[in-house]
Amino acid sequence: MSKSIMIIGAGPGIGQAVARKFGREGWQIVLTGRSAERLAGLTAELAADGVTAHAVPADATDPAAIRAAVAKAEALTGGLTAVHFNAGVVRNQDLFSMTDAEIASDLAIDVTAGFNTIRAATALFGTRGGTILVTGGGLGVQPSADWAVLGAGKAALRNMVQGLAEPMAERGIRIRIATVATLVAPESDEARGAADVFWTLATDPNAAREAVYPAA
Q1: Residues 6 or more apart from 117 whose CB is under 8 A from it?
Q2: Of 27, 151, 198, 214, which has the maximum CB count within 10 A?
Q3: CA distances from 26 to 72, 107, 121 (A)
Q4: Tens of pLDDT along 85-109?
């Protein structure tokens, strides 16, 4: 059975670079995000590069929706190997200039969607095992008031991964986070470098629970 990865929060930067990297290595690819139109564009770009990807639109802030999407990805691929949570709102704004609605919405995407994804993937993998990958950020380790909610969200994800790594390993599930401590533009060297880090986290059984990119 071929290996497969579902990328939740697929986008033109890290998500697309991960899709290309894994796809070129022979993995099946499933892209998930809220916009079906955006996913269609991303899958077309991958197809032009010789990588076939399935598009499964879903809103990861909705726990029932992301469980259904994970189940669909499982059926499409014949069995998922890895699930990658990559969603996040990159908002350069301090806490006090944000509206109540912006704070609630950003936290739902940055944190709640991540927790929903981890829960859905863990339920799917059960006792058979699998890998959960999370896109972290340098702001989760070195916070800035100017990136208030994004930093808090990345810190929350990092905390969750660190806390879950050992108990989930006992169930045969690997959970790993890449702390990306640089801005990443589409089609950039940084995007490709981050994808290489996620490849190592997914395929090296001895990889640490956290990798920092760029390496210090």
Answers
A1: 8, 60, 66, 70, 83, 85, 132
A2: 198
A3: 20, 35, 21
A4: 999 999 999 999 999 999 999 999 9
